[in-house]
Design a protein that fits this description.
The complex is a heterodimer of chains A (about 190) and B (about 110).
Chain A (H helix, E strand, L loop, with lengths): L1 H14 L12 H8 L12 H7 L13 H8 L16 H11 L10 H7 L13 H7 L19 H4 L24
Helix pairs in contact in A: 4-5
Chain B lengths: L1 H12 L13 H8 L10 H4 L7 E2 L6 E2 L14 H16 L5 H11 L3
Antiparallel strand pairs in B: 1-2
Helix pairs in contact in B: 1-5, 2-5
The chains are: A mainly alpha (about 190), B mainly alpha (about 110).
């Protein structure tokens, strides 16, 4: 099984169709594990209420992508949520807050969560994943024309448009397919 | 049947008189409301699309929104709380204010026929 997967991976890699070149060699091993389905960048969403309420306007971001204080900030400002009204009634709001806090980056040992939490210790409580230094560092090589100027993507906030396995909690660069551009080959 | 109940409970909740089935709300009126331009030129169709049997796309985030028509998406208009929640958000976003009970009734009369 392992061998078959590896062989498939090699074939895909050599065709160069869904392959985004590794920028960060230090994380290569993690990337390969992930591709084989053994690695996990963040825990997938495991709360139906959260998925329903916070996944209707956009991708349901995994709690492990932001620290507790960021989620607290988001949950107390839902009335003006990035220009939208995302208000929730009780007890739903508390249920969701509890789920987010319990699984936040600073309370999770999975994949990238500890790294995200660590990288954010000097950053206050960012309300956007896409504005954290961690996120920007991972995406600095992705040009505007593939994002803002790409009608099929529009903004970095739409993780799932490029990360084909985003919903399962996997953001591996090898699984990236930018709509209208496909993978990038080196 | 369930949708008719939602129509009636909406009016009851909002304090408006519960109207006899079929008399108070009408679908053509709902259709007009659906197409009414709100603040900054906003429309319900900005996110739900102009073809209600087809999926829409959130105008800000680009996320797919499943079809609004109950004939192709049976889960639609079946949960009063959900309907109320989204009326509140979407009327405010599109028209800059909450919808009246009358408007909601007309809209539901029209949407439920799709």
């Amino acid at each position: 099984m392992k061998k078959t997967l590896l062989a498939m991976t090699l074939v895909l890699g050599s065709l160069g169709t869904v392959h985004w070149a590794t920028a960060d060699e230090g994380e290569r091993e993690h990337g390969l594990l992930s591709l084989l389905g053994y690695g996990q960048d963040v825990d997938p969403v495991a709360n139906a209420t959260y998925k329903e309420e916070c996944g209707s306007c956009h991708f349901a971001y995994q709690p492990g992508l932001l620290p507790e204080r960021s989620w607290q900030g988001i949950m107390t400002g839902l009335k003006d949520h990035f220009g939208d009204n995302a208000e929730l009634e009780q007890p739903v709001r508390d249920q969701i807050s509890q789920y987010l806090v319990a699984n936040a980056a600073d309370h999770s040992a999975t994949g990238r969560s500890p790294g995200i939490a660590k990288a954010l210790t000097t950053e206050g409580a960012p309300l956007r994943i896409t504005e954290t230094a961690y996120f920007r560092r991972k995406h600095h090589e992705v040009p505007e024309r593939m994002v803002k100027e790409n009608p099929q993507v529009k903004s970095f906030s739409q993780c799932q448009t490029c990360h084909t396995k985003a919903e399962s909690g996997s953001f591996d660069e090898h699984q990236v397919e930018i709509p209208g551009f496909g993978g990038r080959h080196h | 049947m369930k949708r008719r109940l939602i129509l009636i409970s909406l009016t009851a909740l909002s304090g408006a008189p519960v109207l006899a089935a079929g008399t108070g709300f009408n679908a053509p009126e709902g259709k007009v409301l659906w197409g009414r331009t709100g603040q900054e030129g906003r429309l319900c169709a900005d996110c739900h699309g102009s073809e209600l049997k087809a999926p829409g796309k959130h105008v800000k985030t680009g996320k797919r929104i499943e079809a609004m028509a109950p004939s192709v998406n049976p889960g639609r208009l079946a949960d009063l709380k959900k309907v109320e929640k989204w009326f509140k958000r979407n009327c405010e976003w599109t028209w800059g204010r909450e919808c009246t009970a009358q408007e909601k009734g007309h809209l539901l009369a029209w949407l439920s026929q799709q």
